[in-house]
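To the structural biology subgroup,

Please find below the input and predicted structure for Putative D-isomer specific 2-hydroxyacid dehydrogenase, which we are adding to the shared reference set this quarter. The sequence is reproduced verbatim from the submission form. If anyone notices a discrepancy with their own records, reply to this email rather than editing the shared folder directly, so we keep one authoritative version.
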Amino acid sequence: MTRETTPLNIFTSRFPLPETRAALENAGAVLVDDLAEADAFICHGVAPADFPELPDRVKWVQLCQAGIEGFFAEGVITAGQEGDRRWSNASGVYGRQVAESAVALLLSVTHMHKKIARAASWSVWRDVDENTRWLHGATVAVVGAGGIGRHLIEMLAPFGADVLAVNRTGHPVEGAVRTVSIDNLKDAVAAADHTVIAVPLTDETRGLFDAGLFSAFRPGATVINVARGPVVVTEDLVAALDSGQLGGAGLDVTDPEPLPDGHTLWDRDNVTITTHSANTRASMDAQLAGPVTENYKAFLAGERMPTELDPAKGY
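Predicted structure (tokenized):
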């Protein structure tokens, strides 16, 4: 790979990223106001369907999301006419924030906060007293032990929960009492009191949590989804909640998304839903500044960027 010898002209859109822009300028990049003059494009706040046509001179595109399946689906992510355009995303950048939100959802469901809030009355105290569940001594399956999963394992430790990690290979994950491969997912959820989904959305994970998998859950278990909505088959989730196979769910992502007003999942005491806000847009700039600058430096050095995409894998 040819080493770049001059700074890149970088164009950013659509929302301002002042901290990221300042970090790039400190690293020697030149910020330009016209995409036609750019060698690199920092894409923030642009939907896949609205992605601009890139000049041939753009050789690096930084997507500011971790989940970029929509850009693959729209055919946006290509190597360009010269075959040398490279892409990176924000994989792992928001892991701590999303893990914190996963813990919040888990506690909300197990401590019955929504039931209390909806009742707006002390009269529910007996049900809460009898049915509140605790993380201490519980087994939590973390499905997808990447950036989010690693932070989540760290956060669960003080609660006294045992973590069963699930990843592609079964290679041991630090902090987990046991790690299994995705091929053993049914056994993992059967052993868990709570399951947190943190996998990327790929052809292999789309619809992974369906009726067949929910039937393997420990009766009354909790499921938390901070991955992508289509990883879970919504109709099967509803059925598992109706039957009592699942005791509750916490969802930062849904399918469809946004979840329509009046959907049955909104009106359940044992389901807490947030608005795909495990990481907020307002917090993104400060988190992106360092990783995007590291990607810039790696690109200039002719090295693989820390969050460079592998188009063949879809992430």
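Summary notes: The radius of gyration is 21 Å. Residues 95-273 form a domain with the Rossmann fold fold (CATH 3.40.50.720).

Regards,
Lab coordination
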